[in-house]
Design goal:
Layout lengths: L2 H13 L6 E3 L5 E3 L5 E4 L3 H8 L3 H9 L3 E3 L3 H16 L12 H14 L22 H12 L3 H7 L18 H15 L7 E5 L5 H10 L2 E6 L2 H13 L6 E5 L15 E7 L10 H11 E13 L13 H7 L8 H9 L4 E7 L3 H15 L1 H8 L1 H19 L4 E8 L14 H4 L4
Parallel strand pairs: 1-3, 5-6, 5-8, 6-7, 8-9
Antiparallel strand pairs: 1-2, 3-4, 9-11, 10-11
Helix pairs in contact: 1-5, 2-3, 4-16, 8-9, 14-16, 15-16
Length: 438
């Protein structure tokens, strides 16, 4: 029996489309498009993963454990697949999604028996998240953040730029390096917020302190960073001490709902930033998030929210980004359509003054991160293990493609808290913060 041919035929019938790949099985057999990306099945356990968890999650489990590989550039291979899915869905909107029928199950069981695949479900990869407790409780949010961000500071230093900015850069010129694009993004945020020496700023979801440290060092503000990751908190405090910024930087290891416990007082904050943290807040909790921001700001204070979005309108579109992202990368993440986010920001009384789409910037940022990962592969594996490194390869390759193809977006939203008599003290033109960018 040609294992590759039989498996490819079963997969195409299950997905309702032709797969533009060359499949090579563990027995050396091959089938499929001779010009397509080569998918190699190294181990029969890969098929068990897919049989027990049909679709994206089963394939992801097989990939991160090394049971399957995609030869060549992973991003290019995934791009070919998505092109084929789009073409197939022009005729059938269900194409590319598993169609599990009794007849197909019987066929799969028979094939599994003939190929000697039958066996217990393979162990779930150790890199999967396992969360318990009430959704978006303080404890569960802390566990969700820890799963991703407490991986290893040294690992993130391999991937990110020297600013340690883990968000889309501002590639206002196509020839910018990753560091230049991230520095431009940090200047852009600080200018939009109108930062001046002595101001009080809160950075919600401060990460490894890229904006917190930058605003303190270059704009002379006093910043309270907020994170649920102890690894990040310790990293930022160490960097602040090294740069002589300890008097200007405080990092609070607590939930954004508990900022009063770190000295943040209602109506006294000049500026608030939240850079790609709002996706982790949750849907129902987002009203608490924006009303808290409104409460903390003084009249005339500004907020800059950089946030990813999804349409959530197309069939199969999930607010968490899909089974792989939700299981391995960002459990409990909830991305909203931009229009819904704007309404939630405005609801407590914040006036939206500028929205800047940055979707096309993200593939350039992620491509640089992926290049860093591949260039430092051996060191990355030594730091986090091969399974986790493969998680990141798949995450970055797939994530870049999602922005490239407009399945995900990212925007900077600038808003202000007007005074009771309507004074916003805002520039009349966005040229105030864009004038130096070509």
């Amino acid at each position: 029996m040609n294992a590759a041919s039989s498996l490819l035929s079963l997969a195409e019938d299950a997905l309702g489309m032709r797969l533009p790949i060359r499949l090579r099985a563990w027995d050396g057999s091959e089938a499929g498009d001779p010009t397509g990306p080569v998918l190699v099945i190294h181990d029969k356990r890969a098929i068990r993963h897919v049989l027990y968890s049909p679709g994206e999650l089963g394939i992801a489990r097989a990939y991160v454990q090394g049971y399957i590989d995609l030869e060549g550039d992973v991003s290019d291979g995934l791009r070919v697949m998505w092109d084929a899915v789009r073409d197939a869905r022009a005729a059938d909107e269900d194409a590319g999604r598993p169609h599990i029928t009794p007849r197909l199950v019987a066929r799969a069981v028979g094939l599994a028996l003939r190929l000697g695949i039958v066996g217990r479900r393979p162990p779930i990869p150790a890199s999967e998240s396992v969360l318990t407790g009430e959704l978006h409780s303080r404890e569960r949010d802390r566990a969700a953040i820890s799963h991703h961000y407490d991986l290893s500071n040294d690992f993130y230093e391999l991937i990110l730029d020297p600013n340690m900015a883990y968000s889309s850069g501002f590639h206002h010129s196509p020839d910018l390096t990753l560091e230049e694009a991230q520095t431009a993004k940090l200047h852009l945020i600080c200018r939009k917020l109108g930062l001046q020496p002595g101001m009080r700023m809160v950075d919600i979801g401060s990460g490894w302190g890229s904006l917190t440290l930058f605003a303190a060092e270059h704009y002379g503000v006093h910043v309270t960073g907020v994170t649920l990751s102890s690894e990040q908190r310790d990293f930022v405090l160490k960097k602040a001490a090294e740069r002589g910024l300890s008097d200007q930087v405080n990092v609070s290891l607590r939930h954004f709902r508990d900022l009063s416990e770190s000295g943040v007082r209602d109506g006294q904050i000049d500026a608030i930033a939240s850079v790609e943290m709002g996706e982790h807040v949750g849907d129902e909790e987002y009203k608490v998030f924006t009303s808290s921001i409104h409460r903390y700001l003084r009249p005339g204070g500004r907020v800059l929210i950089q946030q990813m979005s999804r349409s959530n309108g197309a069939k199969g579109d999930r607010p968490g980004g899909g089974p792989f992202i939700e299981t391995y990368i960002a459990p409990d993440m909830h991305m909203k359509p931009l229009a819904k986010t704007l309404g939630l920001i405005a609801e407590p009384g914040l006036e939206i003054r500028d929205v800047q789409a940055m979707r096309e910037h993200y593939p350039q940022t992620v491509a640089a991160w992926l290049d860093n990962l591949e260039s430092n592969w051996s060191e990355a594996v030594a730091l986090v293990g091969e399974e986790q490194a493969r998680v990141w390869r798949l995450y970055l390759a797939g994530g870049s493609l999602a922005f490239e193809e407009n399945r995900m977006g990212v925007d900077q939203v600038l808003a202000v808290k007007p005074s009771p008599d309507g004074v916003a003290s805002m520039p009349t033109s966005p040229l105030a913060w864009l004038k130096d960018f070509s």
